[in-house]
Amino acid sequence: MTFAQEIETLIRARYPILYVLSSEEMRVQNLVVQVAQKRQKKVFEWSYTTGIVPAGTSIQSQKHRNAPSKDPLVALDLVIDQVEPAIYVFKDFHPFLTKNNFAVVRKLKEIALHLKNSLKTVILIGATLEIPTELEKEVTVLNHPLPTRDELGELLDKIIEDVRGFKQVRIELDEPGRERLLQAALGLTLGEAENVFAKIIVKDERLSGDDVNEVFAEKQQIIRKNGLLEYYATDETFAHVGGLAVLKDWLQRRARALTAQARQFGLPPPKGILLLGVQGCGKSLCAKAVSSLWQLPLLRFDMGRMFGSLVGSSEENVRKAIAVAESVAPAILWVDEIDKAFAGSQGSGATDGGTTARVFGTFLTWLSEKTAPVFVVATANDISQLPPELLRKGRLDEIFYVDLPSTEERVEIFRIHIAKRGRDPANFDLPALVERSPNFSGAEIEEAVISGLYDAFYTGNDLATEHVLEALRQTVPLAKTMDEQISRLRAWAEGRARNASVPREPPPGETPVRRMEL
Which of 478, 429, 470 is nearest to 451 (CA)? Predict the structure, then answer.
């Protein structure tokens, strides 16, 4: 059932008061007008600035103004006095439904009893939900969905048609480019999408599928206003990630899994992954690179921002953060060091009154039940701190173990970091560097290259193999100081997680068929 059909069904069933949660009041009102025309009913709208006027009355028009009906009590009296079938749309009525406005609450309750026996309906539209206890049984709450891809496509076609007359504006939008642009715009309201498409045209005097970053910037505004999530702008790609071939392949195969074509094919959206492993081996870098690979906004979920001093506020903050992530979906939600965020959740009752356990429960429930295309990338270092509930299949698609880089991977990592600093890797003795860096993590290799740069700059020379070798000699890798922890982590990951670098071996007993020479 579509939202329009649901509204019409409730009106026909004589539900007295509908409360539509939406920040797109004109879009909701237009839909109500269409339903009313079909049911042959009049539509009136109310706001605190205009009073009750026929729906669609221009803000400049004075003809239908009814100043006394700005008062909500007078407006509600007019609803009762109206005899003909009608729908009344009240905009931003929630401030009058708080505890202090007992007269308005009582009047609305009396109206609800009256409307059940009439052909009239009251529809409250607002972005904030405020329902007093007295009205809980009389009000039906509806969430107005954000625009679909088809609706955004119609808007884009209309904008393109409007600017075709301007010769300086170039429309370079093939079908794949159009799909990328609409995919990026999902999660915006029609007004926000119209603003960002217009901004792209005015700024560049062109419109193409490469303008997805401008759409992401519009989503960044939404996230900034909330304050619970951090929009993480990144230019990292998998070209900056050495090794991890299995993980890269897994993500590449799911690059289009959040598109409309994937839904039509019957694919559910991927839920997420847990990257478990040694510090400095590229887990966080991979989370950033997924954003570039899939061309989706990256949101950082900082658990420290979720915890509030008031009882119940922490769980509410998690729900708000999740709602924001879903409102800008499709998106990637990066939960960094999730082991530290939920450490001690099992003994939370004795330490913090159960707050951590409740927050963790809220997050786990969402992971299991979410339908919005929000892909979660969680990273962790210490498996002993991870609650077992998180590791159950169904909450995340896969657990990858990110180990220290192998010899071949270290060659690739040295190449990446030397080239990143504007030098040609062919001018360096890579085998010597790799031989001198056993059990070094990717972060330690990068730091050795940077340290070599400092030494070369100090002596007035260009970076050479000797500078990096000297930096490696002076570095004690983390693998040496944390040998026991890393061994324990490897032992746990064996058979429980996929190695991000090495393909899985065939199941035991599955031997290749012997071929005979005939």
Answer: 470
Cβ-contact 154, 141 below 8 angstroms: no
pLDDT digits (tens, 9 = 90+) for 405-448: 999 999 999 999 999 999 999 999 999 999 999 999 999 999 99
CB 423 within 8 A of CB 416: no
CA torsion, points 283, 286, 290, 291, in degrees to nearest 10? 90
Residues with Cβ within 8 Å of 214's Cβ and at least 6 positions away in sequence, in order, are 196, 199, 200, 203
Residue pair 357/314 in contact by the 8 Å Cβ criterion: no
What domains lie within the chain, and their CATH numbers?
Answer: 3-143 (3.40.50.300), 149-226 (1.10.8), 238-402 (3.40.50.300), 407-480 (1.10.8.60)
Tokens of 438: 């056993």
Which strands sit side by side in the sheet containing 374-380, from one edge to the other? 229-231, 298-301, 331-335, 374-380, 272-277, 398-402, 498-499
Cα 226 to chain centroid, rounded: 13
Half-sphere exposure of 174 (CA within 13 A, CB side): 2
Rounded to whole angstroms, the Cα distance separating 390 from 360 reads 9
Q: Which burial class, exposed, middle or buried, applies to 386 when counting CB atoms under 10 A from its CB (0-12, 13-18, 19+)?
A: buried
CB of 219 closer than 8 Å to CB of 187? yes
Residue in 13, 275, 246 with CA at minimum distance from that of residue 140: 13
Per-residue model confidence as pLDDT tens digits over 230-280: 888 788 889 999 989 999 999 999 988 877 788 888 888 899 999 998 888
Q: Would you put residue 73 in left (φ > 0), alpha (ψ -120 to 50) or beta?
A: alpha
What is the DSSP code (8-state) at residue 354? T
Which pTM value belongs to this model? Answer: 0.71
Which residues, 6 or more positions from 191, have their beta carbon under 8 angstroms from its beta carbon? Answer: 24
Supply the DSSP symbol for 399.
E
